[in-house]
Request: fold
Amino acid sequence: MKAARWWALAGSVGLIVSGAGAIAGPAAASVNPTPASHRMALHGSLVPAAERSHPAGRVASKSLVDFDLVLSLRNASGAQAFLREVSSPGSSLYHRYLTDAQWESRFGPTRTEVTRAKSWLRHEGIAVGSVPKDRLFVAARGSALSVERAFGVKLGYYVVNGHKVRLAKDTMTVPSSLAGTVSGVVGVNQYLARTDLARQGSAPAARAA
Reply:
């Protein structure tokens, strides 16, 4: 199973923090407001208040935002258990990775879910891009205004560790009709990439998440 699939799998079942959380470090997130009854919150999409303490202006409504709409897995609890087993030394499944076909058969989102996600994006005025063979996400691009409307948020720029990054000001949401189809979004919020190999004193680069 390719590394990219492990990233998406982990995100889909909630085993890694969102890109928003990647900025946060140990800081606690502000309390998420309860979404409207017809909306579903995308958990982990709200950046902690500490990271939004230095606003640097609004995102222009016509600026383009590239992002991936992450789709829900079939049998997410089973996928989570498998991920733990295949990554745990001593497990009978340790490093016994699935083939692409096995992955798609056991855990991959269905074509119906992909169609539903695409239809919603287009309804929101957002262009649909490629979908990987395992159907873990739908690549998309839209204006900042269309993204704000689709996810029920306002986008702004903030200075974090000397870099200006784009962040949603609130928890992102989607229509409740997409429950079981959409599990998250990657790329609307930007985060600061850090590596242990970074030279001391150098500032981290801003990336989308």
